[in-house]
């Protein structure tokens, strides 16, 4: 029946075309733009000027590598905070599991921009947190957190924590607890049970959570501009400035493309290091 | 890979996407066809942007009042009742659609530029931007309507001499001022225990980590130049390089805490920074409204006076109405009302007298506020202050890229 | 650990949940840790809510100056802020609707059928979800610039649908995969046509997933700042207005609206939990 065969195509068509038109085509358009030369006044002409990339990378290498560093640090922070949390909720959350998950998500009903600005007030040198600590002598008087790399990294971790917790929770929650019991029955210590049984099962969740955290954090610019100071500029800030402030579209597109390339490279090497095959195996179970 | 095993919601579906990527090179090939199409679409680049320069007489020929006007301004640059606009509508019958859509000169320019290049309406008939690079670009590109000064009698009569025939727009061909401000130094005496008088104080290691500078290339360049004893308006490439060096030195010494886009008041008030480059009106408002004691100084080396300007895009659909509003805002009483709310330097000197009179008629808090306002050197700078005030350097569009990258390298470290 | 012994879904496993099998009573560090992190998550929110009640005199809502309900009475005093919020809501609703429909169809196709281009669709969806917002925003702006399209309301909706549609599709696909095909077979055996089967059997079973996907799209849309900032043109959304108002001080109305949106979110969530409990 020809008609039935058409059904999936008809179903997929609107979504597929939307993605093709407004995701794939723009990326291609950006690639084209990154190779043009010119300025706003004279217009941008396609000259296949690959040197745009060389210039952009040479000028902004520091910010690009810093972004990967900050994104990576935020991801590690999220993992350190998120894994124990996901673990505890999955195994000890009892009937309140969904309530805990909800509590993690609730702050995210408040606008991202507003949340980040709120941190700025909270972290100010004499503000609610530091001011109190200083007045009771728990922190040195000249302690400053705002406008520093840790402030940016913590802000990033704050804003993207659920992206780490939820995937890890999802895999742990599906895990059959009898596996751990079996490990204990075989005289495994707690550490052994964790390393040999729980961790391998949690790995796909960690993998997904890592990506879901690392990608947006390393490309963010809101946290760096609100919570950062000198030497904290990230590549997102540069992209924004080049596009929206300088109207230097070729440079902007070249940096954006470089960032995307680096992230893709990172994703694939990460997948390889973690063992894609095993991740899939676990999933297929 | 087949979908034959049950999976719960989002995350596993995501790993699947992730882990599957390497299996679908064929899929990638299918995609590249699409990409090629997109590429073909864009191989042409973005066309030339410049419009033909418009002659004033040609522009105004046949233009008539439409009774409706769309006006883009900065946030909180008029009270929330839009008092002045209501009065305008009462007086002329022209209704105004007022939008607080200008948040930054550069990004606003980025938004309207493609439309102006196409000769399309930008959705506004009149807007307020600062004298600076974007203004120079707008003029160079022929995007602004030349003003018909025959219809701006109030400007001719009431505008202060300083605001007429400026460097950035000789003969006020395209713009008239909305309000001005001084970029000087503000400090918080709760933390700074000496009097601050000069830009050199911003380089004092005693204030390590407690100084705020502006991120805007032109603003920060001016302070670097003034510190080096150069008048910004007359500076050139080598001056800029030296200014950038001085600013970099200040940054590397750890003196600068952050480069602020515009939100410097709050950290200055709560002590995150002790002193900063600052805009006069903001300091005045903060002191008047919150009883803070922030000090604003025009430094001995000099400071800059910037002006937010009203202008009409060439694609305006109601240019005559826009002119009428410009003219209306130069009525001294109206200008005084505006100044009362925004606290920046009005282009109409007479407002000082009018505000003094209003203070005499008022009582209580209002009276106190109006007295403070009308006496404030931040709103009505003295002649001595004006002597120390410089204009921005007017950059030709082809100089802007170098200028920007020089100073962005300082602020976007 | 909580003392319940009967987990509603898998009553035979929970009481013996792994680490709890240790006999000694120990301090439940995990609990303290979880609550500490939760507290951290709520710090700025608490601050925001508290300052919606702050009796500020100036434009900078930073220092505590006394309690007032005034700002709730004047929540809509800033016309542009109100307008920005309405824009955000309208965009989010449209996004929810469009992304909800085309995403569900896509999810259905992916979960149920095999077709040419399925793999590439999956890759594109994955890429669209994982692409950083700056990249999406910049790419869309590039396209709009190249094509000479005016940025504005329409381009924002286009962008929002684009980055949320994959989330909807994935959520729906996950549900489609778990559906028992026997139910639909049974319906067909009873003489229902394909459309009737879909309407009376498949659709009702998919509704929760479609709703979840749609709500996710709504939430992602209303919160978005980065992508919107690239493609917004002359339209100012709620997050964009907040960003812009930092120049002159964020008025307490922003805290009020933030608090109200938060409260609506809390209520929705609570209702959701209660309904979910009842269903069991």
UniProtKB/TrEMBL annotation, chain A:
<feature type="transmembrane region" description="Helical">
    <location>
        <begin position="252"/>
        <end position="271"/>
    </location>
</feature>
<protein>
    <submittedName>
        <fullName>ABC transporter permease</fullName>
    </submittedName>
</protein>
<feature type="transmembrane region" description="Helical">
    <location>
        <begin position="151"/>
        <end position="172"/>
    </location>
</feature>
<keyword id="KW-0813">Transport</keyword>
<feature type="transmembrane region" description="Helical">
    <location>
        <begin position="68"/>
        <end position="88"/>
    </location>
</feature>
<dbReference type="InterPro" id="IPR000515">
    <property type="entry name" value="MetI-like"/>
</dbReference>
<keyword id="KW-1003">Cell membrane</keyword>
<comment type="similarity">
    <text>Belongs to the binding-protein-dependent transport system permease family. CysTW subfamily.</text>
</comment>
<keyword id="KW-1133">Transmembrane helix</keyword>
<feature type="domain" description="ABC transmembrane type-1">
    <location>
        <begin position="64"/>
        <end position="268"/>
    </location>
</feature>
<feature type="transmembrane region" description="Helical">
    <location>
        <begin position="100"/>
        <end position="118"/>
    </location>
</feature>
<keyword id="KW-0812">Transmembrane</keyword>
<feature type="transmembrane region" description="Helical">
    <location>
        <begin position="7"/>
        <end position="33"/>
    </location>
</feature>
<dbReference type="InterPro" id="IPR035906">
    <property type="entry name" value="MetI-like_sf"/>
</dbReference>
<keyword id="KW-0472">Membrane</keyword>
Automatic annotation (TrEMBL), chain B:
<dbReference type="InterPro" id="IPR006311">
    <property type="entry name" value="TAT_signal"/>
</dbReference>
<dbReference type="GO" id="GO:0015846">
    <property type="term" value="P:polyamine transport"/>
</dbReference>
<dbReference type="InterPro" id="IPR001188">
    <property type="entry name" value="Sperm_putr-bd"/>
</dbReference>
<dbReference type="GO" id="GO:0019808">
    <property type="term" value="F:polyamine binding"/>
</dbReference>
<dbReference type="GO" id="GO:0042597">
    <property type="term" value="C:periplasmic space"/>
</dbReference>
<dbReference type="InterPro" id="IPR006059">
    <property type="entry name" value="SBP"/>
</dbReference>
<dbReference type="Pfam" id="PF13416">
    <property type="entry name" value="SBP_bac_8"/>
</dbReference>
<keyword id="KW-0813">Transport</keyword>
<protein>
    <submittedName>
        <fullName>Spermidine/putrescine ABC transporter substrate-binding protein</fullName>
    </submittedName>
</protein>
<keyword id="KW-0574">Periplasm</keyword>
<keyword id="KW-0732">Signal</keyword>
Automatic annotation (TrEMBL), chain C:
<feature type="region of interest" description="Disordered">
    <location>
        <begin position="1"/>
        <end position="21"/>
    </location>
</feature>
<dbReference type="InterPro" id="IPR051789">
    <property type="entry name" value="Bact_Polyamine_Transport"/>
</dbReference>
<feature type="compositionally biased region" description="Low complexity">
    <location>
        <begin position="11"/>
        <end position="21"/>
    </location>
</feature>
<feature type="transmembrane region" description="Helical">
    <location>
        <begin position="123"/>
        <end position="147"/>
    </location>
</feature>
<feature type="transmembrane region" description="Helical">
    <location>
        <begin position="32"/>
        <end position="53"/>
    </location>
</feature>
<keyword id="KW-1003">Cell membrane</keyword>
<feature type="transmembrane region" description="Helical">
    <location>
        <begin position="85"/>
        <end position="111"/>
    </location>
</feature>
<feature type="transmembrane region" description="Helical">
    <location>
        <begin position="153"/>
        <end position="176"/>
    </location>
</feature>
<keyword id="KW-0812">Transmembrane</keyword>
<dbReference type="GO" id="GO:0005886">
    <property type="term" value="C:plasma membrane"/>
</dbReference>
<dbReference type="InterPro" id="IPR035906">
    <property type="entry name" value="MetI-like_sf"/>
</dbReference>
<dbReference type="InterPro" id="IPR000515">
    <property type="entry name" value="MetI-like"/>
</dbReference>
<comment type="similarity">
    <text>Belongs to the binding-protein-dependent transport system permease family. CysTW subfamily.</text>
</comment>
<dbReference type="GO" id="GO:0055085">
    <property type="term" value="P:transmembrane transport"/>
</dbReference>
<keyword id="KW-0813">Transport</keyword>
């Amino acid at each position: 029946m020809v008609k039935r065969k058409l059904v999936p195509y008809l179903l997929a068509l609107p979504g597929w075309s939307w993605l093709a038109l407004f995701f794939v085509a723009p990326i291609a358009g950006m690639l084209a733009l990154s190779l043009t030369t010119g300025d706003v006044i004279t217009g941008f002409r396609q000259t296949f000027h690959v040197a745009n990339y060389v210039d952009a990378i040479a000028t902004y290498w520091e910010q690009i590598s810093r972004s990967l560093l900050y994104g990576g640090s935020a991801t590690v922070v999220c993992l350190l905070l998120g894994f124990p949390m996901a673990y505890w909720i999955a195994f000890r959350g009892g009937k309140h599991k969904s309530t805990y998950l909800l509590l993690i998500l609730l702050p995210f009903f408040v606008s991202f921009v507003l949340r980040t600005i709120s941190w700025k007030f909270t972290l100010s040198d004499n503000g609610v947190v530091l001011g109190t600590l200083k007045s009771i002598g728990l922190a040195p008087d000249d302690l400053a957190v705002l406008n520093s790399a840790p402030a940016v990294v913590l802000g990033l971790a704050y804003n993207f924590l659920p992206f780490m917790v939820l995937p890890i929770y999802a895999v742990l929650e599906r895990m059959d607890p009898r596996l751990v019991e079996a490990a204990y029955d075989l005289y495994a210590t707690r550490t052994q049970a964790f390393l040999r049984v729980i961790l391998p099962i949690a790995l796909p969740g960690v993998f997904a959570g890592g990506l879901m955290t690392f990608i947006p954090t390393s490309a963010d610019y809101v946290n760096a501009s609100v919570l950062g100071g000198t030497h904290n500029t990230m590549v997102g800030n540069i992209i924004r400035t080049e596009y929206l402030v300088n109207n230097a579209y070729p440079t902007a597109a070249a940096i954006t493309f470089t960032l995307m390339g680096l992230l893709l490279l990172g994703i694939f090497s990460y997948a390889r290091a973690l063992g894609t095959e095993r991740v899939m195996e676990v999933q297929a179970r | 890979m087949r979908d034959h095993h049950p999976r719960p919601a989002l995350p596993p579906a995501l790993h699947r996407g992730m882990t599957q990527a390497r299996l679908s090179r064929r899929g990638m090939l299918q995609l590249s066809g699409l990409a090629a199409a997109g590429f073909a679409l864009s191989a042409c680049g973005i066309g030339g942007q410049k419009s033909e320069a418009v002659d004033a007489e040609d522009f105004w020929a046949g233009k008539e009042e439409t009774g409706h006007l769309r006006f883009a301004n900065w946030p909180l640059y008029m009270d929330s009742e839009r008092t002045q606009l209501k009065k305008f509508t009462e007086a002329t019958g022209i209704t105004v659609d007022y939008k607080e859509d200008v948040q930054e000169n550069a990004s606003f320019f980025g938004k309207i530029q493609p439309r102006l290049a196409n000769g399309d309406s930008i959705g506004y008939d009149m807007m307020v931007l600062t004298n600076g690079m974007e203004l120079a670009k707008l003029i160079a590109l022929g995007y602004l309507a030349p003003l018909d000064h025959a219809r701006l009698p109030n400007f001719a009569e009431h505008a202060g001499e300083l605001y007429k025939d400026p460097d950035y727009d000789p003969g006020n061909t395209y713009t008239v001022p909305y309000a001005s401000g001084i970029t000087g130094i503000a400090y918080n005496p709760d933390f700074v225990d000496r009097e601050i008088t000069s830009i050199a104080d911003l380089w004092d290691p005693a204030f390590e980590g407690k100084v705020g500078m502006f991120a805007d290339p032109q603003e920060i360049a001016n302070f670097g130049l003034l510190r080096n004893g150069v008048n910004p308006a007359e500076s050139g490439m080598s001056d800029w390089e030296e200014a950038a060096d001085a600013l970099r030195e200040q940054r590397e010494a750890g003196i600068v805490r952050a480069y602020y886009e515009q939100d410097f008041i709050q950290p200055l008030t709560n002590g995150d920074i002790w002193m900063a480059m600052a805009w006069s009106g903001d300091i005045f408002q903060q002191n008047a409204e919150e009883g803070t004691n922030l000090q604003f100084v025009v430094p001995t080396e000099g400071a800059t006076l910037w002006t937010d300007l009203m202008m009409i895009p060439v694609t305006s659909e109601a240019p005559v109405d826009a002119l009428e509003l410009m003219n209306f805002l130069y009525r001294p009483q109206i200008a005084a009302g505006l100044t009362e709310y925004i606290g920046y330097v009005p282009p109409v000197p007479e407002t000082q007298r009018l505000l003094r009179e209003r203070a005499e008629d008022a009582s209580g808090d209002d009276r106190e506020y109006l007295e403070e306002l009308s006496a404030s050197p931040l709103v009505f700078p003295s002649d001595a202050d004006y002597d120390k005030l410089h204009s921005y350097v007017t950059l030709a569009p082809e100089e802007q890229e170098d200028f920007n990258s020089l100073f962005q390298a300082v602020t976007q470290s | 650990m909580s003392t319940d012994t009967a987990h509603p879904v898998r009553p035979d496993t929970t009481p013996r949940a792994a680490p709890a099998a240790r006999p000694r009573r120990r301090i439940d560090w995990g609990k303290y840790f979880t609550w500490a992190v939760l507290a951290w998550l709520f710090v700025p929110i608490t601050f925001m809510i508290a300052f919606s009640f702050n009796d500020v005199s100036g434009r900078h809502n930073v220092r505590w100056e006394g309690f007032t309900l005034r700002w709730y009475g004047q929540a809509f005093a800033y016309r542009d802020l109100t307008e920005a919020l309405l824009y955000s809501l309208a965009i989010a609703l449209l996004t929810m609707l469009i992304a909800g429909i085309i995403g569900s169809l896509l999810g259905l196709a992916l979960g149920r059928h095999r077709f040419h281009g399925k793999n590439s669709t999956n890759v594109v969806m994955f890429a669209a979800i994982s692409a950083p917002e700056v990249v999406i925003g910049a790419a869309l702006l590039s396209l709009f610039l190249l094509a000479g399209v005016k940025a504005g309301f329409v381009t924002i909706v286009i962008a929002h649908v684009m980055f949320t549609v994959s989330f909807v599709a994935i959520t729906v696909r996950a549900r489609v995969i778990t559906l028992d095909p026997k139910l639909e077979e049974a319906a067909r055996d009873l003489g229902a046509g394909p459309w009737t089967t879909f309407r009376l059997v498949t659709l009702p079973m998919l509704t929760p997933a479609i709703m979840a996907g749609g709500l996710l799209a709504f939430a992602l849309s209303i919160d978005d700042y980065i992508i919107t900032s690239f493609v917004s043109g002359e339209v100012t959304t709620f997050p964009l207005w907040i960003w812009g108002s930092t120049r002159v001080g964020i008025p307490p109305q922003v805290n009020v609206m933030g608090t109200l949106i938060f409260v609506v979110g809390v209520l929705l969530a609570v209702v959701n939990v209660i309904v979910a409990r009842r269903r069991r």
